[in-house]
C-alpha cells in the first residue's frame, strides 16, 4: 500500500487550520459569553427592581446559550453534521423535561414569584393552607416561619397556583371581634375582666379603646337568662388571630371558674 504524502500533507494542513480556527472560535466564544453575562447582569440590576436570584439565573442562561452556539459552530468546522446532534439533544431535553416536569413547574413558578413579588421577605402570609412569616424565596421553594417558630417549606408550584393572603400588604389595623354566650348575672363581671386583659395586651391598638358589651339576649328565661357578649378591639393584621385566641382562652377560663 502506497501513501500519498501530498494528500496526507494537505489533510494535515486542513485539519490543523481547522483546529486553530476552533481554538480561536472557542476563545472568542468564551470571552463573548462572559461579556454577554455581564451585560445582562448590569441591565437587570438597573433600578434594583429585579431580584438578584433572577438576575443570576437569566445571566447564566445567556452565557450557556452563547457557549452552546459556539460549540455547534466548532463541530461544523470539522465537518460533523450537527442537525442530527441537535435533534438528539432536543429529544433528550424533552425526555428530561417530562421526567422533571414537577421540578420544572416549581422553577417556572419561582421565576414568576421573583418577578411579580406578591409578597416580600418578612410579610405575614397565608398560602396553600399554611400561615407564617416569609423567611426566604428561592427558585424552587418558599420558606415560611410559623407562629410557633416551625419551618414550613412550600414548593413554588403550590404557592403560585394558590390564593395568597398577605396580611402585611396594606399597613394599618385589623379588628378582633369575638362573640360568646354568658349568663346574664355574670356578664358585667366577665366584661370588666376581659376589658382589663385587652387593655394590658401590648398588641391592642392603644389609640382605640377596646369594647365589651352585651349585643343581644339569647334566652329571656327569668330563671336562667343568657345574653351574647361581644368583644371588639383594634390590632395589627398579623396579630388578629393570636389576640382572638387569647380572648377566647381567657373567656373560657373565666366561664369555667364561674
TrEMBL record:
GO terms for molecular function: mechanosensitive monoatomic ion channel activity. Pfam families: MS_channel_1st, MS_channel_1st_1, MS_channel_2nd. Homoheptamer. GO terms for cellular component: plasma membrane. Belongs to the MscS (TC 1.A.23) family. The chain crosses the membrane at residues 12-32, 53-79, 85-116. Coiled coil: none annotated. This is Small-conductance mechanosensitive channel. It is a multi-pass membrane protein.
Amino acid at each position: 500500500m502506497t501513501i500519498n504524502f501530498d494528500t496526507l500533507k494537505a489533510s494535515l494542513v486542513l485539519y490543523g487550520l481547522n483546529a486553530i480556527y476552533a481554538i480561536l472560535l472557542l476563545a472568542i466564544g468564551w470571552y463573548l459569553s462572559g461579556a454577554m453575562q455581564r451585560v445582562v447582569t448590569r441591565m437587570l440590576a438597573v433600578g434594583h427592581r429585579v431580584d438578584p436570584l433572577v438576575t443570576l439565573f437569566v445571566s447564566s442562561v445567556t452565557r450557556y446559550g452563547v457557549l452552546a452556539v459556539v460549540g455547534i459552530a466548532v463541530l461544523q468546522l470539522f465537518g460533523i453534521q450537527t442537525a442530527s446532534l441537535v435533534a438528539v439533544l432536543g429529544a433528550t431535553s424533552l425526555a428530561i423535561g417530562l421526567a422533571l416536569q414537577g421540578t420544572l413547574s416549581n422553577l417556572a413558578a419561582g421565576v414568576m414569584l421573583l418577578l411579580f413579588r406578591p409578597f416580600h421577605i418578612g410579610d405575614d402570609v397565608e398560602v396553600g393552607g399554611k400561615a407564617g412569616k416569609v423567611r426566604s424565596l428561592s427558585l424552587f421553594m418558599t420558606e415560611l416561619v410559623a407562629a410557633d417558630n416551625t419551618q414550613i417549606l412550600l414548593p413554588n408550584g403550590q404557592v403560585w397556583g394558590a390564593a395568597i393572603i398577605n396580611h402585611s400588604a396594606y399597613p394599618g389595623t385589623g379588628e378582633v371581634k369575638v362573640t360568646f354566650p354568658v349568663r346574664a348575672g355574670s356578664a358585667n363581671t366577665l366584661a370588666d375582666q376581659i376589658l382589663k386583659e385587652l387593655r394590658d395586651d401590648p398588641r391592642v391598638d392603644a389609640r382605640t379603646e377596646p369594647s365589651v358589651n352585651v349585643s343581644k339576649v339569647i334566652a329571656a328565661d327569668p330563671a336562667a337568662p343568657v345574653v351574647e357578649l361581644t368583644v371588639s378591639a383594634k390590632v395589627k393584621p398579623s396579630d388578629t388571630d393570636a389576640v382572638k385566641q387569647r380572648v377566647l382562652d381567657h373567656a373560657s377560663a373565666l366561664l369555667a371558674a364561674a
